[in-house]
Amino acid sequence: MSTLCLLLGDHLSLNMSSLSSINKQTDTVLLCEVKAEATYVKHHKAKIAFLFSAMRHFAISLQDNGYKVEYVHYNDENNQGSLFAQVQYMVKQLGIEKVVLAKPGEYRLFQDVETWTAKLNIPVVVRDDNRFMASEQDFTDWAEGKKQYRMEFFYREVRRRFNILMDDKQPVGGKWNFDADNREKLPKNLSPPEPTTFPPDAMTKDVIALVKEEFGDHFGDINDFHYAVTREQALEVLKVFIADRLPKFGTYQDAMVQDQAWMYHSHVSFYINAGMLHPEEAILAAQEAYYSGHAPINSVEGFIRQILGWREYMRGFYWYFMPGLKTDNYLQAVNALPEFYWDGKTDMNCLSQCVKQTKEHAYAHHIQRLMVLGNFALLAGLDPEQVNEWYLIVYADAYEWVELPNVSGMILYSDGGHLASKPYAASGSYINKMSNYCSHCHYSVKEKTGPQACPFNYLYWGFINKHKDKFEKNPRMAMIYRTMAKMDQTKLGHMLDDADKFIIKLEQNEKV
Ligand code: FAD
Ligand code: DLZ
Ligand code: SF4
Fold it and tell me: Which structural domains are found in the chain, ordered by start?
């Protein structure tokens, strides 16, 4: 019986669960570049170039490892345009009797795959997605019966279970979480190392030309493409991160600097999410850096928490709360995404910086995504559907399983607080504390009202006031409401007016 193993574009690992069940002699692996996946949202050009190039390079590794591979290029005559149509075509061509794949990372595709057995009239076996350490069931077991689903408690459980940074039953260093040490601004005399880059080889150059030709109207730049496209290169990115950036990762994790996109972050999300690196490899490498004395606990625990905590949690959270998570809109936010999310043309320097870096690199680090771009979307009441689509398009590490919980759960509070205990809302002073953006800005972060005032300042109070009925009784928000009640009410009134006027300007597409 001959089996077809479908490897999706983000399943680029020799250890993929789908591959491990096939017979190299009799079975075939299929990888295909298809229009349906490349255009279901108009992905950033660099994201498509990265995946297509990584897929082409991975096909060679598969052949080197003895697999029979059918690779369908975007412009091949036999390209059927969608994953199902391509599988159906191959089943007929090769006389396939069974299809196997690992569970897709997006609900829409998983739902589609569930119809394939009936449509193809042969078994289509979906295996667990093993690009994670915990299983979906682990999350469900943990979440079942809970009223609150806080990442911190899930993280403690997985740390215990996988024995990461544990000293018998206690967390190494005496605390589970060293975040309090991880909130420093970058000092002026400190320059983060340059990112690890790879000049495009002939295969990548072909893909870049294809992307320019076929996806020229998609968002984003592609002239400076420099990502890793092989596992060896991705391992190099990880190695250099551990050696050169990890020791300062924790302390400056939240810092933002004018014209600096990469900071002390790891830049491995593209590779982990595409299957090129396993999360455990990154976690064990970081843990080893702590035990060898190379990196301090605040950095190592901070980095491990992002992957073993947040990444695993987000994936479990996604499947647990889908499909409702996609349409949730607890705060009834309806405003349209402003044009400047695409072109960066705004006088708000922090937003302009983050959009420009996103356009240039298909990357922005966590605090830029959360506390600048995300915070604005929350305070300005932007429609979750439009915000989600934007995040899914613009980042090269974006797949719905990780993008949606970060956007609807973490930044927009659209899920009504399943993920976060309170909204991540902040005024301009947070951005000023963590960056030097404000000193390059048209607006003044110190001013609260009037034409020069930082819009984050009045939008913040506009948001707090608008959602009083939802948040006033939240113990974590009580202080804010007490502060608002004690404020000079005339001044508050001016801020609320400015917030309303600003939203009208946004609606009318005026420059802000
Ligand atoms: P580092 O800062 O070096 O962190 C190390 C690793 O931890 C990352 O590579 C990633 O694998 C993991 N990680 C960190 N934070 C998170 C998180 N909140 N959720 C899941 N994994 C995390 N990450 C994605 O991988 N894809 C997305 O589409 C995505 N969308 C986001 C949208 C918003 C609104 C926000 C606030 C965050 C989003 N993140 C997303 C999480 C995070 O911003 C990125 O993982 C990180 O910026 C990637 O850069 P890095 O590899 O340099 O990360
Ligand atoms: C994101 C993406 C893109 C741009 N193109 C392809 C493709 O041509 N072929 C493919 O198999 N996968 C692609 N992907 C990744 C899929 O969209 C991804 O597997 C699903 O969104 C599930 O995460
Ligand atoms: Fe952003 Fe306000 Fe600072 Fe300008 S002043 S950079 S808008 S926080």
Answer: 3-127 (3.40.50.620), 136-200+230-321 (1.25.40.80), 340-507 (1.10.579.10)
